């Protein structure tokens, strides 16, 4: 009886906590009130040094929204499936203005269980993370909506999705100055920056619906026909105004796998307006042979219903 009551009470407390979260999720955004007095510039476009790095990603002002085209996940038996009618999210990367980049910039926010690379160019070993998954951080912030979206569109291959999300945060967001803990002010709540980064990635991803943009130009996945690199680039440029990086694998770069959209950003990366520009990296897809944009294995994808 006592046990039953205690259990009931525990359930009630949990239910009321999650109800509270539903009514008013804790805020995740940084305090950028100091940015209103800063000059407004696109990242990488003005040689005057950015005075407040919370207001514009510095030095990582060349912002890449990256996506994958996978045909399977390897964890289908666990229900880890790809989103039908959409490419998958890879991340949001802070390249330096010249295309070089930093990685794993803050070991106090190292949540990647399997760091890649394992050792930084300067010889420092990146400590693998052993704690709870980043999905628990999102739950603690009362954002089941975000978690649900990420599980639909941000899909790992060969390992759980949460490991991929952790990798992207620790490798890239820790080098994106507008997610620095200092930007969150004295009221910073642990992992606020992590949840905030994932929201920013989703916002940026939604600006680039690759599957639909290609399909609208008559380019759909096919196991019968190939496309030329020029056809793919032209279709995406016709809609975004810029040529993204297209990444291919397979023999001689004949299997389409990746797209990276290059941007400069006005304001923070959290809310910034992205301005597209041509890729600074040469495509790895063949310029002479046809490129396969393969259909997925039907049992590796599922219907998802979201505004995209
Ligand atoms: C944001 O930071 C400014 C100082 O830059 C401070 O005056 C203000 O109270 C802070 N706002 C919040 C909501 O913490
Ligand atoms: C660069 O920014 C400064 C302010 O920091 C501004 O005065 C100047 O006009 C800007 N230059 C360009 C080319 O936008
Ligand atoms: C790759 O390219 C080389 C040189 O152009 C060609 O000889 C070879 O047949 C190509 N391989 C495939 C699998 O198409
Ligand atoms: C298309 O080909 C890819 C690559 O061989 C394969 O993984 C996929 O299952 C195929 N899809 C269909 C619908 O046949």
Sheet with the most strands?
A: 5 strands, antiparallel
Q: In the CATH scheme, what's the topology name?
A: Ribonuclease Rh, Chain A
Query: So what's the overall shape?
Result: globular
Bound molecules: 2-acetamido-2-deoxy-beta-D-glucopyranose
CATH homologous superfamily designation: Ribonuclease T2-like
Description:
- 38% of the residues are buried.
- This protein is α+β, with helices and mostly antiparallel strands.
- The strands form 2 sheets. Strands 1, 3, 4, 5 and 6 form a 5-stranded antiparallel sheet that branches. Strands 2-7 form a two-stranded parallel sheet.
- Helix content is 27%, strand content 13%.
- The protein is globular and about 60 Å long.
- Strand 4 (245-249) and strand 5 (255-266) form a beta hairpin.
- The longest helix is centred in the N-terminal third of the chain and has 22 residues, at 2-23.
- The chain is built from 7 helices and 7 strands, in the order H-E-E-E-H-H-H-H-H-H-E-E-E-E.
- It has helices at 2-23, 134-140, 144-153, 161-172, 192-206, 210-215, 229-240; strands spanning 62-68, 82-83, 88-95, 245-249, 255-266, 273-277, 301-302.
- The chain starts with a helix and ends in a 6-residue tail after the last strand.
- The chain has one domain: Ribonuclease T2-like (Ribonuclease Rh, Chain A).
